[in-house]
Amino acid sequence: GASALGALFATFAALVRLSGAGLWRYYLAGGACACLSHALTTPIDVIKTRQQVSASRVGARATARLILAAEGPRGLLAGLGPTATGYLFEGALKFGAYESLKRPVHALLACAPVPLPCPTLLGLLVSGTLSGAAAGLVLCPMEALRIRLVAEPSYAQYGWCDGGLRMLEEEGPGAMVRGMTAMLSKQVPYTVTKQVAFDYLAHALRSVARSRLGAAAAARCHLATVFLAALLTSVLSCLASQPGDMLLSAVSAHRGTKKTREFAAEIRHRDGVAGFFVGVQARLVHVGLMVTLQLLIYDTVKRMVGIAATGSDGLQ
What we know:
- The protein contains 13 helices and no strands.
- It has 316 residues and is mainly alpha-helical.
- The longest helix has 34 residues.
- It is globular and about 55 Å long.
């Protein structure tokens, strides 16, 4: 455990050094905003996950009442440890790699033998896809543990680290990455939509404010501009990643060797396409709060460490 954690820190340190001078600030801002926003909204995530893994299809309020009645307020904090730890690294990599890749990817696309349509948008989509996939690989073990702790409240009697060791002992390392396909089907659309939409929306809203109100007034409205861009982004990223999120909950909550495609077929057969959107109302609240808060923190931390506000320095 300690050696694995040390190796993870060493890998991150090497990645940050390779990214270039000053880019460590994006990793710092990304890790801070993802860890804080996911930790603060854990109770809503617990309700959503319990809805998804339960055989009885009840609403978010009824699910919350059942959790409180059976487990007390602590039940709404199930999986807080792996949530905060997993998203600390996931956020650092997702935001840091995305920002580090934007310029190199754009330069690479500019060398294409034929002109590419919408090269700026294409470059952002490629950067978001690569960073989302990398973040998903890092997050998968902690997310598998989180979902197991939520699905089985008595699974880890001595803390979440004990729960992780139990998973490894009883099911092997494969249990921690069994949901990788589902994780990527959630994480890649989520990251691409969130990063690219926020960049475009913040830039567009800032440009509109500058043209209508003038540069000075637009600067005073920066917080409102970022808040609106973040709120719209949260809805888009939630809807884009909902089917993958449902699959990930189904895969990680159950033991055995059933594959992701089998879970997908089972959901489709039982509930149709609507089955992939179980828990979407709770998740819209969760992701709406979490992403809006996350992007506000990200923009604030960026400015605190000397990086230009989102949307103020173009899209590359």
